[in-house]
Amino acid sequence: MLFRGSVEHTIDAKGRTSVPARFREVLSAHYGEKLIATAWFEPCLQIYPLKNWEAYEEQLSARNPLEPGVKQIYRICVATATEVEVDKLGRILVPPTLRAHAALEKDVVWIGLSKKMELWSKAGWEQAQAEARSEAHSADVSRVLGEIRG
Fold it and tell me: What digits encode the pLDDT tens for the residues 12-57?
């Protein structure tokens, strides 16, 4: 029921990219073919099964709209949210504005993040990985690892 791992793919000039087979299996078994693609604070897209996006929006709508950060989340994430559907060939069509936000041109990487996925340009993902590794020994990472004992 969770999305895990990373898979390299391509995106064509029309903006079509294949959802990785293992992610499609999770979708068909638990969620259906409708997804929400949205811009994120980093140069990537968040891809939610519709059910999970609706739960996210519900939580966000319960927040005070004057609370710091809420307006930015609405403007960056909710305003750009677009319903996309997995076609019979296992692909989604990423709208041009979202492709531009994430610099998706040819080589892309799908990332499984438990209840959602991310879609990165290959170069963007490599940079994000390098940054994450450089911060791997931070107090924040140590705190979280200590709290979720594995």
Answer: 999 999 999 999 999 999 999 999 999 999 999 999 999 999 999 9
The full set of domains in the chain, from first to last, is: 6-122 (3.40.1550.20)
Let me know: does 14 contact 95? Beta carbons within 8 Å.
no
The pLDDT, as a whole number, for residue 78 is: 96
| pLDDT at 75 exceeding the cut of 70 | yes
E strand spans, 57-115: 82-85, 91-93, 107-113
Which one-letter amino acid corresponds to residue 44?
C
- pTM, full prediction: 0.90
Q: Give burial (CB, 10 Å; 0-12/13-18/19+) of 133.
A: exposed
Give the helix ranges, DSSP H, for 1-150.
21-30, 50-61, 70-73, 96-102, 122-134, 139-147
Beta bridge partners, 40, equal: none
Measured distance CA(91)–CA(78) in Å, rounded: 23
